[in-house]
Amino acid sequence: MSGSNNGNSQNGNGYRIIGSRPVRHDGVDKVTGRALYGADLRLSDCLHGKVLRSPHAHARILSIDTSEALASPGVKAVITSADYPETESKIIDLGEGPAILKDLRANLLADGKVLYKGHPIAAVAATDPFLAREATKKIKVEYEVLKPVLHINDAMAEGSPLLHEDLHTDSLGKKSDKPSNVAKHLRFEIGDIDKGFAEADEIFEREFDTAMVHQGYIEPHNATALWNADGHLTIWSSTQGAFSVRAQTAGILNIPESSIKAVPMEIGGGFGGKIPVYLEPIAAMLSKETGKAVKMTMDRDEVFESTGPTPGSVIKVKIGVKKNGKITAADASLAYEAGAFQGSPVNCGMMCIFAPYDIEHVRVDGYDVLVNKPKTAAYRAPGATNASMASETVIDEIARWASLDPIELRKLNAAKEGTVRADGLAYPRIGYVETLEACESHEHYKAPKEGSFRGRGVASGFWFNCGFKSSVTVSVEKDGTVRLIEGSTDIGGTRTSLAMQLAEILGIEAEDVRPMVVDTDSVGYTDITGGSRVTFATGLAVIEAGKKVQQEMARRAAQLWEVDASDVEVELDVYRSKSDSSKSITFKELAGSLDETGGALSEQASVSPQGVGGGFGTHIVDVEVDPDTGKVQVLRYTAAQDVGKAIHPSYVEGQIQGGAVQGIGWAIYEGYHYNEDGHMTNANFLDYRMPTTLDLPMIDTILVEVPNPGHPFGVRGVGEVPIVPPCAALANAIYDAIGIRLRELPMNSTRVLKALLKEKGALPQGVEA
Amino acid sequence: MPKIIIPSQLREVTGGEANVSAQGSTVLELIENLDEQYPGIRDRLIEDGKLRMGLAAAVDNEVSSYGLKQKVSEGSTVQFIPAISGG
Fold first, then answer.
1. CB-based contact (8 Å) between A235 and chain B?
2. What residues in chain B have per-residue pLDDT under 70?
């Protein structure tokens, strides 16, 4: 067989399907409300579970008495951490990274100590959710209340109360002598930092403090579990990875992964926050206890207080620069909130903080710091936005000092192919400079800035693209349509981006591919949807399976014509005999002859790819600051990003717009507010202010396409990069508007107004700046 | 011989050396050989028979999913970097 489906362009980009904009396969279900989310699941004779959560941010549990709750109407079971099966404490592999089992378990149901307000203590199963909730109030818990540790600086201070008395700081395998709230210290170092600073004409040294923020997905966490009498457990939940649900639940409950079927329901947003499990093992334990299915759904305050937000941080940046704007050295210290258990994304922040720049001498220190707040989880480019807020505002300051346009300064120092990042890895072909050039020549950047209290800011950002493992199965139907079975939960339109890659390979229409996300019993192992990896990595599995299908279809054609398979060539969806031009057959016609040529045709592919393509973005924003209220209004926003190759440009544009909007929210609205007792005081969407369409202009996007050499279509991860630059871009725009550098997030109206008043010397007495 | 770039925090074990060479055809064999040259470095990189939690091996600038079993060739450069995932 020979042939190619890549050269017959119908949309002007060298491809027939790639780069076009077909209607999404799940669109009708989504807009008609037919898509089934976890809360929609109705099983017969199903119980409802509710969790008792800690009212204290830090306390020792002295006793738990569940007897009155157990005797309450409708209550069928009450569980605490004492009901966990016995297991040894160990590190378990969750597929894309290991986790400490005892921490996973203690986060789900507190063991001896509560470490944040909202920390689960016990769970009840009852015949209806209201009875279950009432019963939780009858569980009696005695506490010894301890002083909470709420800020990184306090947690790192000598003599701070300890969250875990047995935790010692790990410095790449070397433990500190004394216990500490600092779980990890990491360091990257390239070049000679002292030499680099000695070469500088000026050194900029600044400190930043950013607030904890939540992913803010609309759909709360939910899980339904049925522990069958035969020992098999089925879990339906809203998750970014069914296989990860299986692995985490199996580890926590000490049962074989193979005894669990995890069914991913439709997902109403995740952004990294639906990788950890919170309810699944609890629902499973309640189901085992009662012999019935148990359904659990969180309320919004539970989502805010008890699931993983992204960390607040304290970041120090020091950059040395020559008079001509050339950076000679960069040094940073990043301390990230891990929450109640270790594992912040400080490592990623460290890798990203100077990623856009080619700097010879770099040192970056990172600290993973425990505080009495919920265990943090991933959030779109985890750790990178905090880091970019720090480095990119200093870069802006340097540009002004050097009297250079901020894009010019970035071009002067830009990372290119071969540039070595702080962690030591060299870039393959990247498209950072191209994003800068795209912004520089864009009408937005050239437009005059008009009006007082208005300003423009620019910032750049980097994020990786993960590979990990993916599997798909492709089956050909007799009518010539194709079923694509995959295990990657669709949170960003990946059903369609995968279907399009298959259609491109097979020469058929995207609409003739029927993509389906299935449970863990029905597809090969697939890692989470995260790390901007699905269109890239699962796409590679699709391409491989598609090529196998094409090869087998050619063999079937050869069989029909009684020729050798090598005699068959393929162009788009047409299979022809090279030796007899009268013999040709379309994919659809051939599909109708499957029964005569050996029966069903189904091919499978599993991949664990390399060749990932990280991406860069550069954003431009115009703002207006109200000098009387401090309110920042975003007037115009343009985001350029190297997307490799946009498989479905509308979805890529949507990813960029969504990421930018979340970044804008992080910059000027959002943040966890804690009182001195460690209680979050804004655990609802009314007080946790997220931007709405009324707050924002249209987000313009510029798709820069520098193909990733590691993917046949040039795909790079696109979903996470766009949340990285907005905070710094906004901070730079606010400076341009009012001449004040803000180095704390969020830059909400209160903070901006205080800064304005302080600048004028008009801050009322007793008001903290 | 494959080259290994020693992470900053382990250079106290290598006497400050950042670039060293070791023999072996897998990452594990390199670390074992490295431990003979610089005793103690194995335990800083390996825990419970696997790369330490949160650590990944990169061979010739490609992060490997095979961990200690990743093959290396004579001209390879091996680095140890934090493992990443994403949101």
1. no
2. none
What is the total count of domains within chain A? 2
The reply to whether A110 falls in a domain is no
Q: What's the gap in Å between the CA of A339 and the closest CA on chain B?
A: 17
Chain B CB within 8 Å of residue A456 CB: no
**Entry pTM:** 0.96
- A653 and A768 co-located in one domain: yes
The residues, any chain, with a CB within 8 Å of residue B64's CB and separated by 6 or more, are A610, B27, B56, B57, B58, B70
What pLDDT score does A1 carry? 65
Dump pLDDT digits (tens) for A707-755.
Answer: 999 999 999 999 999 999 999 999 999 999 999 999 999 999 999 999 9
Q: Which residue of A has its CA nearest to B79?
A: A424
- Crossing angle, helix A280-290 and helix A242-253, to 10 degrees? 60
**% of chain A residues with pLDDT over 70:** 98
Residues 352-381 of A with CB under 8 A from B: 363, 378-381
Residues A594 and A665 in one domain: no
* Residue A623 sits at the chain B interface (C-beta within 8 Å): no
Nearest to B85 among A97, A172, A608 (CB): A97
Q: Do residues A366 and A336 lie in contact, with contact meaning Cβ atoms separated by under 8 Å?
A: yes
ipTM above 0.85, yes or no: yes
- Transcribe A467-490 into DSSP letters: ---EEEEEEE-TTS-EEEEE-S--
Cβ contact, residue pair B44, A186, below 8 Å: no
For residue B87, the model assigns a pLDDT of: 86
* Contact between chains at B64 and A528 (C-beta distance less than 8 A): no
- What would the DSSP string read from start to end of chain B? --EEEPPGGGTTTTTT-SEEE---SBHHHHHHHHHHHSTTHHHHHEETTEEPTTEEEEETTEE-SSGGG-B--TT-EEEEEE-----
Q: Between vectors from CA A587 to CA A582 and to CA A590, what angle results, nearest 5°?
A: 70
CATH of the domain at A657: 3.30.365.10
A651 in the same domain as A529 = no
Residue A491 within a domain: yes
Amino acid A471: pLDDT: 98
Neighbour count for residue A112 (Cβ, 10 Å): 9
**What does each C-alpha distance from A122 to A139, A323, A372, A410, A483 come to in angstroms?**
8, 62, 19, 53, 43
Q: Give the largest Cα separation in chain A, rounded.
A: 94
Residue A248 Cα distances to A252, A281, A520, A716, angstroms: 6, 8, 13, 29
pLDDT on residue A6: 42
The residue segments making up the domain with residue A708 are: 428-465+612-769
CA B55 to chain centre: 9
CA distance A723 to A728: 11
Tell me if A351 is assigned to some domain. no
3-state secondary structure of A24: coil
pLDDT at A8: 43
Interface of A with B in 33-52 (CB under 8 A): none
CB contact under 8 A, A423 and B86: no
In terms of residues, how long is chain B?
87
Computed over every residue of chain A, the mean pLDDT equals: 96
Tell me which residues of chain A, numbers 661 to 700, contact chain B at a CB-CB cutoff of 8 Å.
Answer: none
As to burial, measured by CB atoms within 10 angstroms (0-12 exposed, 13-18 middle, 19+ buried), residue A45 is: exposed
Kindly state whether residues A448 and A516 are assigned to the same domain: no
Structure tokens at A234: 């089925």
Structural domains present in chain B: 3-82 (3.10.20.30)
- What is d(CA A181, CA A369) in angstroms, rounded to the nearest whole number? 6
pLDDT at residue A5 greater than cutoff 60: no
- Are residues A497 and A713 in contact, defined by beta-carbon separation less than 8 angstroms? no
Residues of chain A with pLDDT > 90, as a percent, come to 95
pLDDT digits (tens, 9 = 90+) for A315-339: 999 999 999 999 999 999 999 999 9
Last residue of a domain, one of A554, A587, A607: A607
Asked, for residue A681, whether it belongs to a domain, the answer is: yes
